[in-house]
Design a protein that fits this description.
The radius of gyration is 17 Å and the shape is globular. By secondary structure, it is of the alpha/beta class. α7 links the parallel β6 and β7. 46% of the residues are buried. The chain is 32% helix and 13% strand. The chain has 8 helices and 7 strands.
Length: 248
């Protein structure tokens, strides 16, 4: 993990675990995603950027989620050492990283109380989730990003069953964290129908969720963007984070 700290005068104690995209075949922490991280840092969050294992290196499911869960637990266990609030740890993901963030925020456990490892005893549940144009469905041909499915599910028998199990909308527990979703309307890589599907699943489970499916906008528009409509995600997200007590 790379740790990016805010200026001491602006630090809020909030933590972001940032999960870059890359179709589960690579880690794409490019200028667009670095700028997104810088936005959170400027707002006072400490950001941990996780370079998780992925199918491009032969590490299929469950390797990416194992790394992400371990990161959440590690941050929570060591929060005091960094002056962080262990109850304000969120996952933020873009594209395939958004799928991983959705998976982590719905398939978590509360920690293994029998473990001798204090990190494994900590809860893996994030306190909030922010998903930028995430992959959600791994089964609907009209929505699925085929490369992400291939590099997450991997080879072997019964891949259809595993793809259904790993689709984020298929298992939303009643204690999933509040979630914020953003998509551009012109996105053909992860069509915004993914977001509509996941939003409905969250609401059905009683989870507080907010989704912004903009009329226009490509995949990975992030930052910087010259489209004033797309750039609205920043004040919208800021308001949402304040409402949920992440920022004050």
């Amino acid at each position: 993990m790379e740790i990016i700290n805010p200026a001491p005068s602006s630090a809020t104690g909030a933590t972001i675990l940032f999960l870059p995209g890359g179709g589960y075949s690579m880690i794409s922490f490019n200028a667009e995603r670095r700028a997104m991280v810088d936005w959170f840092v400027a707002r006072g969050a400490t950001v941990f950027v996780l370079r998780y294992r992925h199918g491009g290196d032969g590490h299929f499911h469950p390797a990416p989620s194992e790394d992400a869960f371990r990161a959440v637990r590690w941050i929570r266990t060591h929060a005091g050492e960094y002056g962080l609030d262990p109850s304000r740890i969120g996952v933020v993901g873009a594209s395939a990283g958004g799928h991983l963030a959705a998976y982590v925020s719905t398939r978590f456990d509360r920690g293994d109380t029998t473990s001798a490892d204090p990190v494994e005893r900590a809860s893996g549940r994030p306190d909030f989730a922010v998903l930028f144009y995430p992959v959600i469905s791994l089964t609907d041909p009209s929505l699925t990003h085929a490369g992400s499915r291939t590099h997450l599910v991997g080879p072997g028998p019964d891949t259809d069953r595993l793809a259904e199990e790993l689709s984020a909308e298929t298992h939303v527990p009643p204690d999933a964290p509040p979630t914020f979703l953003v998509y551009g309307g012109d996105d053909t890589t992860t069509p915004p129908g993914n977001g509509a599907l996941y939003y409905l699943a969250l609401r059905k489970a009683g989870i507080k969720a907010e989704a912004h499916l903009f009329e226009t906008g490509p995949h990975a528009f992030g930052l910087p963007t010259r489209d004033p409509a797309l750039s609205a995600w920043q004040p919208l997200l800021d308001t949402w984070l304040v409402r949920h007590g992440v920022f004050r």
